[in-house]
Automatic annotation (TrEMBL):
Catalysed reactions, as listed in the record: Endonucleolytic cleavage of RNA, removing 5'-extranucleotides from tRNA precursor
RNA-binding listed as a keyword: yes
Keywords in alphabetical order: Endonuclease, Hydrolase, Nuclease, RNA-binding, tRNA processing
Protein name: Ribonuclease P protein component
Species, as recorded: Flavobacterium luminosum
Record-linked PANTHER family: RIBONUCLEASE P PROTEIN COMPONENT
Signal peptide feature range: none
Molecular functions per Gene Ontology: ribonuclease P activity
UniProt cross-references to Pfam families, sorted A to Z: Ribonuclease_P
Top-level EC class as recorded in UniProt: hydrolase
Amino acid sequence: MKNTYPKHEKLKSKTAIDLLFTEGKSVSKYPLRLVYAPITPETGEKIKIGVSVSKKYFKKAVDRNYYKRVLRETYRLNKSILIDHLDQPYAIMFFYQTKDRLTFQEIHKKTIALFEKFITTIQEK
């Protein structure tokens, strides 16, 4: 599988985002949080993902954009963990929720742990 983050995997639908915040469930691994909800398959994608960094913690857009790039990159490198274990399509929002400035390596390790926790959570259902 290619380690890419193509356009069709990006979460852009307002209805899907609203669904996440109204009916979505959450999994956390400090400082990351993943909110997810099952969606109806549209064109065969298994996953739609978006990233967010709070303005509350990072006032400057430069800093928020840096952490959003890091989150997208860690997803791109580890998306096989998710896609190999999903049985139905999910909309996922990926949050960075602290003012601590972690390095890429620390965020990468936390992302792997968060994805594994998410997989065990959905398999328990």
